[in-house]
Description:
- The protein is an alpha/beta fold.
- The chain has helices at residues 16-25, 48-58, 74-80, 96-109, 129-137, 148-157, 159-162; strands spanning 4-9, 31-36, 65-69, 85-90, 114-119.
- It has one domain: HUPs (Rossmann fold, 3-Layer(aba) Sandwich), CATH 3.40.50.620.
- It has 7 helices and 5 strands.
- The radius of gyration is 16 Å and the shape is globular.
- The model has no long low-confidence stretch (mean pLDDT 95).
- 4'-phosphopantetheine binds next to β1 and α4.
Amino acid sequence: MERIAIYPGSFDPVTNGHLDIIERGIQIFDKLIVVILKNPKKQFLFSPEERIEMLKTSLQDFPSVEVDTYDGLLVDYAAQRKAHAVLRGLRALSDFEYEFQMALMNRRLKREIQTVFLMTGMRWIYTSSSIIKEAAMFGGDVEGMVPPLVLARLREKFPILANPN
Ligand code: PNS
């Protein structure tokens, strides 16, 4: 039986921290579906189309990874795709409460879907899309923290990043 996991998130934009989790996730699961979902708590910098393009390009060397979007509940999507698990990365302490809450709500909504946490590599423990966007917005260099296409797209959004003083 094929073991399918869903790796959900906002991916606004995808970071090297996400790629680290994906690379380790595909060692556990036969197939990984990376899905962009709506997080009503967040305001987005990139459109869903831009986020898909960045994900697809960054993941083109991983044949067992698919990229998709869905407008609804994560557990409904997971059931539709016959997934056994939801994969999430855990960084420093700050993630814990939010992730716990989400995993327990998801379990309440659909008991048969398990949430699996992978601990982010030490290099990415304090990396997040939000902090990268904030640095980029004010011209902070984020090279090495995001895939090359994301860096190019950030430079387009924030000209100050492309032309540092
Ligand atoms: O990258 P993020 O923003 O931490 O990802 C959060 C996300 C998108 C996975 C979460 O907000 C989500 O699952 N949204 C879809 C609606 C849903 O099922 N919410 C969780 C149970 S209420």
